[in-house]
Amino acid sequence: MKVTLIRKIPVATDICVFELASADNTPLLPFAAGAHIDVHVGGFVRQYSLCNRPSEGGVYRIGVLREAASRGGSVAMHALAAGATLEISTPRNHFPLDEQATHTVLLAGGIGITPLMAMAEQLREAGRAFELHYCARDPQRAAFGERLAEAGFADNTRFYFDSEGPGARIDLARVLAQPNDGKHLYVCGPAGFIDAVLGAAASAGWPAKNVHREYFGGAAQQTDAGADESGAFQVTLASSQRVIDVPAGTTIVEALRAGGIEVPISCEQGVCGTCLTRVLSGEPDHRDLYLTDEERAANDQLLPCCSRSRTPMLVLDL
């Protein structure tokens, strides 16, 4: 769908909020907190979380960090000016809030605040119990500071800044010390931050089903050092029994495409979940940042944009 950039608002050092409205007056589809959209910009397709209040109709807002080591997407976004027309996808949500939670803990690292901001908005509006812990390098790099100082947010929000020294950093053991079946934890940020939170949650005894995480693009791929990273294998398409060779150094998606088979993809980094495919036989070598440990252990689905195979053959539900 086509949208128009109606406002570009600096909200922190190197972070702007982009406010998007329909380019042809077609109503924007509703979304729930945790949803993201694909944005086509500068020849790239990038995923950005919606950060505004879900009940606010007629506009999508996304927060974008201009990264020094950008592969091009964030630089292209920051070069835009109001009035620009963009192509976006409809919202998709792989990171939804649990509506049955009695208390929600939100942990944001850097630009990972964007989906959690929408969650805080939704929880505040619904009058549900939550707390938001926001870690950033320094106050100038913390987005949405003015909004989070407002009533309904300020009492529930705690900031932690690296620039203020070790004593000002978050104590994950303390924050996560009291898990229970009704509490749910949501974390988004750099891979190292998320891994630290997941480790602390596991040590504190949080139920795995109550811990939710979303990596963003550019996170380092997770691989198993014991797996053969370059070996060739084959995939069988269950619908036709056609066998596709996947050479060393070629992804499953690339091999399928070479054979004339298109699989929906977006990030191509194992982050967004767009290409999630059911596995009917064989053992995947998971290289993604999307599936949970439990989902990986089940070995009944994989992300073919980045994952490979531990067995000579994978049978896919394609």
Primary descriptors:
single chain; 318 residues; alpha/beta; Elongation Factor Tu (Ef-tu), domain 3; Rossmann fold; Ubiquitin-like (UB roll); 3 domains; 6-stranded antiparallel β-sheet; 5-stranded parallel β-sheet; globular
Helix content: 10-25%
Q: Count of DSSP E strands?
A: 18
Quickly name the level 1 CATH class of the largest domain: Alpha Beta
| Main pleated-sheet profile | 6 strands, antiparallel
SSE layout and pairing:
Elements: E1 2-12, E2 15-22, E3 36-41, E4 44-49, E5 60-65, H1 73-78, E6 85-88, E7 103-109, H2 113-126, E8 130-136, H3 145-148, E9 157-161, H4 172-175, E10 183-189, H5 191-204, E11 211-215, E12 233-237, E13 242-246, H6 252-258, E14 277-281, E15 284-285, H7 293-298, E16 301-302, E17 308-309, E18 313-316
Parallel strand pairs: 7-8, 7-10, 8-9, 10-11, 12-18
Antiparallel strand pairs: 1-2, 1-6, 2-5, 3-4, 3-6, 12-13, 14-16, 14-18, 15-17
Task: Kindly summarize this structure in a few lines.
The chain is α/β, with parallel strands linked by helices and 318 residues long. The protein contains seven helices and 18 strands.
What can you tell me about this protein's structure?
- The chain is an alpha/beta fold and 318 residues long.
- It has three domains: 2-88, Elongation Factor Tu (Ef-tu), domain 3; 103-215, 3-Layer(aba) Sandwich (Rossmann fold); 233-316, Roll (Ubiquitin-like (UB roll)), CATH 3.10.20.
- 17% of the residues lie in helices and 31% in strands.
- It contains seven helices and 18 strands.
- The protein has helices spanning 73-78, 113-126, 145-148, 172-175, 191-204, 252-258, 293-298, and strands at residues 2-12, 15-22, 36-41, 44-49, 60-65, 85-88, 103-109, 130-136, 157-161, 183-189, 211-215, 233-237, 242-246, 277-281, 284-285, 301-302, 308-309, 313-316.
- The strands form four sheets. A six-stranded antiparallel sheet has the order 4-3-6-1-2-5.
- Helix 5 (191-204) links the parallel strand 10 (183-189) and strand 11.
- The longest helix is centred in the middle third of the chain and has 14 residues, at 113-126.
